[in-house]
Write a structure and sequence with these properties.
115 residues; mainly alpha; rod-shaped; Fry_C domain-containing protein
């Protein structure tokens, strides 16, 4: 569940970065024709940097959770895995969520390639 929350926050941060990047691009175009001050551009650049930092931090949190999950699963013996999968539905949920997230990332990558 925590991994899923990190993923949802990552998506929000990614969308925020895209908005800031589009604002910077629009401001740069206006600056080229002389319609915007440098102060506005510097402020937008700063906001873009902040949002990129937050996005990177969220990615770091997700990778830490993946690492914890993988280490936990690797430390289980085969019989323990079977018992956990039989007795503990949370491991089944982790496994299912892991593959769902991988599929979503694959779908987003495919969509980006089509754009």
């Amino acid at each position: 569940m925590e991994l899923h929350e990190h993923y949802e926050t990552f998506i929000e941060r990614k969308e925020q970065c895209i908005r800031h990047l589009n604002a910077v691009k629009a401001t740069m175009k206006l600056m080229m024709i002389g319609g915007v001050s440098i102060y506005a551009n510097n402020n937008q650049n700063l906001e873009l940097c902040k949002s990129l930092y937050k996005l990177f931090f969220q990615l770091l949190l997700m990778s830490d959770k993946f690492d914890e999950m993988i280490k936990f699963i690797q430390n289980l013996t085969n019989s323990q895995r079977e018992n956990y999968y039989d007795d503990q539905s949370f491991l089944y949920d982790i496994d299912r969520n892991f593959w769902e997230i991988c599929c979503v990332w694959k779908d987003e990558k495919t969509i980006r390639q089509l754009d």
